Amino acid sequence: MTSSAEPALPTPDALDASAPSAFARPARRGSRTWQQFARHGGAAAGAVVLTLVVIVALCAGWWYPGDPLRIVATPEIWPFEQWQYPLGTDALGRDIAAMLAHGARATLAIGLVASVAATVIGVSIGAIAAWWGGWIDEVLMRFTELFQIVPNVVFVLTVVAILGPRIENTVIAVALVSWPAIARLTRAECLSFKSREFVQACRTVGLSSWRIALREVLPNALPPVLVMGTLVVAGAILYESVVSFLGLGDPNVASWGRQIGEGRTLIRSSWYLCAEPGIAIMLAVLALNLVGDGLNDALNPVLRKR
């Protein structure tokens, strides 16, 4: 009677050799994400427009040195009338192109800083509420709802009016109205991962709650938060434009919203004074929304399979 040979079990060395590198897995995942993002036509176009806006913001000081709010020519030169001022001048004789370029720098700075601050606050509160639950979750969620009772625009205008017309105060106001949505999204994502099998396995092997939350749950919950962050930047641009349009922005800083506010009295005779900064705001916000849609399709596993 012949006995069949038992299949040889793989040795640990063989497993290590056949397993993909720990550095290769994130690289391949990042490559797939980038390919999915690049296939999204709107996202690619938005990324190009956003890149151009960033380049203009970074080169504003080099292209237009000095104070962009200084008077350089006669008032109300129409666009393309004089090559020195391709976008014309405003009612005071200031170069509109210089103000748009420096306004891009201020607008993007407010949007990025406010988005980072709102993301840090929202992720921290949402993760703590979801992970520890109980009365901590109740208190933090009721605290979050307090910031959602007042309409966002009214809240931003109130904070800026109280703190004063400075760019730092605008950042604070925008961050205060933006973090609740991120907190609720983070809480929902963390709750969905809290009961997963890999979390239970981590508890079984004796990992601490802090290690599981920071090393396992939170990284998996961050992709939707990153998409929300791009929308927060777009919202921050709109909030800053509203604040500056109403005359509550920093008077020493060039702003797209302020240009529209100053040009609205001449909109019948010199409509370009409002049209040019309005187009800049539209393109920046549209580009950020398109990039956000592309990131959502690339990072969302359900949409990625489709």
TrEMBL record:
Asked whether the keyword Membrane is assigned, the reply is yes
Tell me how this protein sits in the membrane: Multi-pass membrane protein
Kindly state one GO CC term assigned in the UniProt record.
plasma membrane
Q: Where in the cell is it found?
A: Cell membrane
Entry keyword set: Cell membrane, Membrane, Transmembrane, Transmembrane helix, Transport
Q: What are the residue boundaries of the ABC transmembrane type-1 domain, all occurrences included?
A: 104-292
Q: Does the keyword section mention Cell membrane?
A: yes
Q: Which InterPro entries match?
A: BP-dependent_transpt_permease (IPR050366), MetI-like (IPR000515), MetI-like_sf (IPR035906), OppC_N (IPR025966)
Bilayer-spanning residue ranges: 42-64, 108-134, 146-164, 225-249, 270-291
Annotated region described as Disordered, given as residue ranges: 1-20
State any GO BP term from the record. transmembrane transport
Annotated signal sequence range: none
Q: What PANTHER family does the record point to? A: D,D-DIPEPTIDE TRANSPORT SYSTEM PERMEASE PROTEIN DDPC-RELATED, OLIGOPEPTIDE TRANSPORT SYSTEM PERMEASE PROTEIN APPC
Q: Which family does it belong to?
A: Belongs to the binding-protein-dependent transport system permease family.
Stated name of the protein: ABC transporter permease
Tell me which species this is from.
Pandoraea anapnoica
According to the entry, what is the taxonomic lineage of the organism?
Bacteria, Pseudomonadati, Pseudomonadota, Betaproteobacteria, Burkholderiales
